[in-house]
Structure formats: C-alpha cells, structure tokens
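Researcher: Good morning. I'm working through a list of sequences from a screen, and I'd like to move beyond sequence-only analysis. For each chain I'm collecting a predicted structure so we can compare shapes side by side. This is the next one on the list. No need for commentary yet; just the structure.
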Amino acid sequence: MAGSEVLDRPGRADKVMNLEGMEVLVVGLARTGTAAARFLSRRGARVVGTDVRNRGDLERESPELKDLDVELRVGESQAEESFLRAELIVLSPGVPPSIRPIVEARRRGIPVVGEIELASWFITIPIVAVTGTNGKTTTTLLIGEMLKRAGRRIFVGGNVGNPLINLAGDEGDREIAVVELSSFQLETIGRFRPALAVLLNITEDHLDRYTSFDSYLEAKSRLFINQEETDVSILNWEDRLVKRAASACRARKLFFNLPGGESEGAFFDGERIVVRGIEGEEVYYPGRSGLVGGHNRENMMAAILSARLYGCPRDAVQTALEEFEGLPHRLEFVRETGGVRYFNDSKATNVGAAVKSLQAFSGPVILIAGGRDKGGDYAPLKGPILERVEHLILIGEAADRMERELGAVAKIIRAESLEEAVGEAHLLARPGDTVLLSPACSSYDMFRDYEERGEVFKALVKRLGGPAKTGGSGAAREKNRRAETSPT
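Model: Good morning. Structure tokens for this chain:
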C-alpha cells in the first residue's frame, strides 16, 4: 500500500463554521486558551475569556492577552452567567469538563468543544494524531523529523507545544499536520478525524482527574471514533488495553510489536526493526540511535510505520533514527562523574513511564522518585525495583504512600528536597552505578512543572564534585541502615 494514495485526503469543507458575531467563551487562558481566543477574535467572534487566576497573573504568563479583543472575566469576577450566555464554549485541556458550569451549559444544549476540535473545523490537510500514556512526544517529534527529511512540508504541534489552532485557517504550503494529543484533549472532540491515528500504550495515569481507569481508557478511545475505512490506525500488538480501546475502530489497522510471523506491521528481531506490508520487507537499525530502552524501540516502530505510509524514503527514516537527539527530561543523560552516570527522566510523571525507564537499565540504579501522587497503583514498580534498584530515594507528598507500598522491595531513603536527594545519591553511588530521576509522580508539590524539576536536577548534578568519601547524612544513613536489615 502506498501511503500517500490513501492518507493524503483533503479535509471536509462541511466542517467550517461561520464565527462572525458569535459569542464564544474560552475557559482557561494558558497557552492553548490564549491561542484559541486569538483565533476566534480574528474570525470575528465576540470572545469572552475566563480563568480562575487574576488578571495580573494571566497577563504575566500570556502578555498578548492585553492586545487581544477579548473580554476577560477572571478570578472572583467569574460567573456562571458567562457560561450560559455563550453560543459556543471552548474548553482548555487543563479544565475538567465535569465542573458545574460546564455540566449545566451542556444540559442546556450549549456546545462545548476543545481547541483540537475547533481547529479541526478549519484544517484541510491530513492529520497524524499520536497518543498514549507514554512516549507520545518522542514519537510525534520523530515522525516529524522523518517527514521533514523526506521533504514534506509539515506542522508539528498539539500537546507537544504549538497549539493546533495556530494552524487553523493558516496552512500555507503545509501538507501534513503531526499532532500529539493528551487524554484531556481527546475528551472534547466531536468530529475530529485523523487520517492516521497512533495509540502507543495505555497504563494508569491522571486518576486524580478521572473517576476511574475506565474513564481514562474511554478518553483515549475517542481517538478512533470518527475514523473511516480509508484511514489507518497504528497500534501496539502487545498492549491488550490498546486493542480494547481500538476494538470498534473502522480504520485499517497496522500493529507494531508483532509476533515475527505476522505479515503486516513492525517487530523487533533482537537487532533490527522489521517492517512488512508497505513495500515488501524492510529493516531498520535502532541500535544506531541515541534513543535507549525497549519503550523507545516501540516509539521507533510506530514512527517508522507512520513515515513510510506517507512515502518517506527508507534512508531518510534511518537517518532520522540515527540523528534524533531525544527529548529534554526524558531519559536525558546529564553527566558521568566518578564512574557514576546521571539521567534526568523528570517527564516520567506516572508509574508506567517510570517502569519503562527502569527497564532501560540493567542496574545497579539509585532511583529518585516521588512528587504529587496521581492516584495510580505503585505495584508495577516492584519488579523493576527489585531487579535493578540498589536504593530508592523518596521526595515530595507521595513519599509516605510510596514507602508503604514499595518498602518491602527497596532500601528506602527519605529526602526533604531534590537537592538533598541528589546529595544522598552522590554519597551512596559507586563506580558503575546509575542515578536516575524518574519520579512516577507529578511535580506540582515542589515545582512549577516537570521541566523545572528536570532543570533543577541537572543543575544540581552538574555542581557535584568527584566521588563521595563517606555515607550520606546522619538521618539518611540511619534510615538506610534500617532498610538494609529489613526483609526484601
């Protein structure tokens, strides 16, 4: 199958909406909400923006709000009347659709959409949409790099940074949009239809927002609801939850992580990625890439299938694999000192991501974890910790719960700050060890976001001297001494 013959279909003209004079409420005015407000204003809508933060904080974060023709109702001045007067509500991904004014607006028949849905009404080029609990940013950017090397004119954005609404009505000469989507963004789609949908994996996440894991799974499943037989879905063969999410998908399905004997899709034979069903049998060499770990092989397989379906030449695909530098804060090598390697994996904000990160190392590992608990089960960490982790250093609000649930398989050390955790790791580490920050939690108890947490970690590591001469602090050494005598 030649990908361009099937996937390069035009958008649907019947999606375009006349916004002139319509009163539209934008809820949440961070980066995505501000971009949506700007687009709506330019289209002639009467835009009202609302946010729980006060005007000063908003304008410091998004200075362009001052220059937009948007009526702001923020902080204490918010009123449910703003929601009920609107003809259309655009909900930012950080705002749960379960808040009372949104529920009431929907009950009264007021349409509520997200920025992704709104953007899709005005986009005519095909969309490649990538989601999954983990790996979606790497895969999105890798697909983008492959297509760029093939000379395709592309837009890359969505949850990865550049809101999709910035493409709407301004496609220029772009041919393809490659978009990372979170479950929050998928909650509010209506007619959004990707020509190519990629679902990498599903593990527990965001249970501080969803009422159950099934609710989270349902949000991910929405990726496929509008796909048709002429579209394609790329799915993880080994993930039963991915198969469940895509069970009603009408698109053609291609799988990665296939058993070696299957005829179409991609698999890893221990050395090479083998692709079948596009143009005969093809092989690629992931070992030449700087991306490490089995999870990154999965990301590579999904990206290769996506790029090849759009006609990206094989040599461009392999070159992109070899030259892709990976992401900041995702298994990012920081430095080696005294024979100890330090890795920043601050982007691992859930248990599944931390498990995959640990599996990238053979050990011994000193793991720094913790932060704000997201409600998931820490049990999947037990096996990788038992196999690889010499010491588990816990920080943040989740430390008590993590110690209760993981204390039987790990030598636990508690630290009051990330600085103290890095210091203890440095004192404990021996040549050949790996110190890994992979928190399995969000960062909001101690940091603005995972990026700030990662930058602080890197700065602390870069300030370290040579090998430590003694054990850790008194409290930590005593805690560690007790842990070494406890059953494992």
